[in-house]
Design brief:
Elements (H helix, E strand, L loop, with lengths): L6 H6 L6 E5 L5 H7 L8 E6 L3 H8 L3 H6 L5 H15 L3 E8 L12 E9 L5 E9 L5 H24 L1
Parallel strand pairs: 1-2, 1-3
Antiparallel strand pairs: 3-4, 4-5
Length: 165
Amino acid sequence: MNPAADLKPLLLAEPRLTLAVAESLTAGHVQAQVAAVSGASNYFLGGVTAYALDAKVKLLGVNRAHARQVDCVSQRVAVEMAQGACALFGADLAVATTGYAEPNPAAGVKEPAAWWAICHVRRGGRAASLSGLVEIPGATRRQAQERVAAEVLGQLAAYLRGFRK
């Protein structure tokens, strides 16, 4: 089951909304799920996988000092990535992921975990953001990537259902 399939009717309802993606931990899994849905070209503008600090800063406008301090993994970095994707692609909505797909003892990370964020640029240029943390104890690298991708797409669908009410 592809969680992105639930997005299509929510994005195409009036007013139509466009979507962009910024990924680190998920390394293209979110974009692949979105693009796997027939008709995605009607709302999906594109995405970027920015693993390195310099890519996050240059492409998405992430604050270098903060990102360096937290090894590019924090709620703030995820939100800045989503905001940057909205700006880069001129999208109404963007989702972002950043985290650890496997334990990283040097960073004090015992289990895979990731921050996700959603940015919605509304009329008048006001931006609304929401974010969350997903912990995936015992997951393999690929399982962590897939779980985080599914989580952020599920959160986007839930957000859009509430927005459309």
